[in-house]
Amino acid sequence: MTDFRWPDGVRCVVFVSLNFDAESYDLKSTTEDRLFGRFSYGRYGVRAGLPRLLHMLQRRGIRATVFITASDAMRHVDAIREIRDAGHEIASRGADLAPLTTLGDSEFHALQRGRDTLAEIAGVHPAGFRAAAGEVGPRTLDHLAHLGFTYDSSFQDDDHPYVFSAGGSATIVEVPTVSSLDDSFPYSARHTHARVLKIWAEEFEALYRAGCLVPLTLHLRGDIGTSRAARIAALEELLAHIAGQPGVRFMNGSELAAHTVRSGRKPEANPYLAHSEVLSRTLYRGDLAIRPIGA
Amino acid sequence: MTTAGIERTRLPEELRCAVTLGVDFDGPSHEVGRGIAPLGTHSWGRYSARCGIPRHIEMLHRQGVPCTFFVPGYDAECHPDVVQAIDRAGFEVAAHGYLHEAWDLEAAEETELLQRTDRVLRELTGKPVLGWRSPSGRKTATTMRVLKSMGYVYDSSDKDYDLPYRLRFGSHPDDWIIELPNNTYSLDDFPFYKFSHTPPSEVLAQWKSEFDAIYDADRFLVLCVHPRSGWGSGTPVRTRILEQFIEYMKQHDGVRFFSAMEFARLCERGLPHLEEARIP
């Protein structure tokens, strides 16, 4: 509901992103020596899912943005380079999947490690960041700008990208997502892929009409992600339909951020600032928070 | 019709279904009240003011139907321009907690918060606030007493009936308020979008089926939606199915849309009979 404009001739932009979340995710529940059985769905994503997904994206001519933790990147160096060589954007998901809001003073160093590990493996500094579990702290945006990131993609509060002030004259673009276009929620609820794709087809049609960003968020995992052959086939059918609509353009995170900067949107204050005083005297009742299934 | 000797509420004969639409603003108050910063995944309440409310206003205006916006006081303080836009568009602004308190409150604190929210909303719209819906559905007889003392006409939080009634909460003759009961398991958006991840078209089918069962039967429908993203109806496809539901109801003879306040006023003085219930 803003005056945001897409490039000339573009009616709506589809942003395909992939949260790599391999062993990083399983290690939230277990230890390194137990990454077997029920804790091997992350490994499935890399061994079985990734080649299949890369083939499909190549067939469709889609360049995605892949958010990867330092810990997963170190375990899967070849896979990261393969993703890069296929033309996809390598972006950071932090050091591991520990929520940033639990890191205290070590948050900056964790973000730095996430950046540097990917830079070392992929040979390029990541421009984009997406927080584990979407947990962003009061200083995260400032840290990211300071570390040279050009955009974050962790919020869920707008139909289009926009810009945050991030300490002094620094800014950072926000490329918001929406949980209804995130595969992990319906797959956590054990829905069929037919049902998930039904939701997405309905979502796309309305977003397309309204000229909004279509932030499709995939996971690589074999349990709550899009890596099984049938799920990828179902997704490919939808992507083919989407690509066939007039005025649809696929953009990765960096391209979206660059367009947003060019569009001259006025930076907005870090939302924490308006609420910090009330938050400082408010009892934490996070256990009452309405959290999505699986989050 | 009587049940166990009680004469039920009777609506005017020509009214085959009364519909009240409610939008619970649920902006950042929902997270901030729980001590969570509205950042990252917790920013979805920010969607209400940025996108959801403007989209709902536009759609409701296009459909020409009234609607009541239940607004937490804190959200009104954060987004005064949005609350004024709701009012200017001709929709009712009613109260919905201060920080969307979804827990039990002591009477003194609760009274203060109810009064604070009332003051904020009244000053923004220049109109008296006449109704309240509990955030999360918690309330006591004390809550009703405070609302009544502030001149409120109705509450819309109880889940115990299909029809409006006069809720008596004390022994004084004036100890009553109009109750417009709602149901947050079926005529709401968040159970489907938050818990069951139901496709929007199936949510529409669910609501139509609710309407079909109510039309010409109990004849009173209260729908509650949220303008946030994530588990609300602020996004394009979900606002669209809300619009399609409104269009579906409009196709039926004898359906009339009311703001909660208008309908409560009708209950106060215009019904053939209004049932009274003493709680507890």
What do these coordinates show?
The complex is a heterodimer of chains A (295) and B (280). By secondary structure, chain A is an alpha/beta fold. Chain A has eleven helices and nine strands. In chain A, strands 1, 2, 3, 8 and 9 form a five-stranded parallel beta sheet that branches. Chain A has a four-stranded mixed beta sheet with strand order 4-5-7-6, with helices on both faces. The longest helix of chain A is centred in the first third of the chain and has 20 residues. Chain B has one domain: Glycoside hydrolase/deacetylase (TIM Barrel). Chain B is 40% helix and 16% strand. Chain B is built from ten helices and twelve strands. In chain B, the strands form three sheets. In chain B, strands 3, 4, 5, 10 and 11 form a five-stranded parallel beta sheet that branches. Chain B is globular. The mean pLDDT of chain B is 96. The interface between A and B is large, with 53 and 45 residues.
The radius of gyration over CA of chain B amounts to: 18 Å
What characterizes the major β-sheet of chain B? 5 strands, parallel
| CATH homology-level superfamily of chain A | Glycoside hydrolase/deacetylase
The string of secondary-structure elements of chain B, in order, is EEEHHEHHEHEHEEEHHEHEHE
Helical amount among residues of chain A, as a percent range? 40-55%
Order of SSEs of chain A, N→C? EHHEHHEHEHEEEHHEHEHH
Number of domains of chain B: 1
- Strands of chain A, count: 9
Poorly predicted runs of chain A: 289-295
Features:
heterodimer; A: 295 residues; alpha/beta; five-stranded parallel sheet; four-stranded mixed sheet; B: 280 residues; TIM Barrel; 10 helices
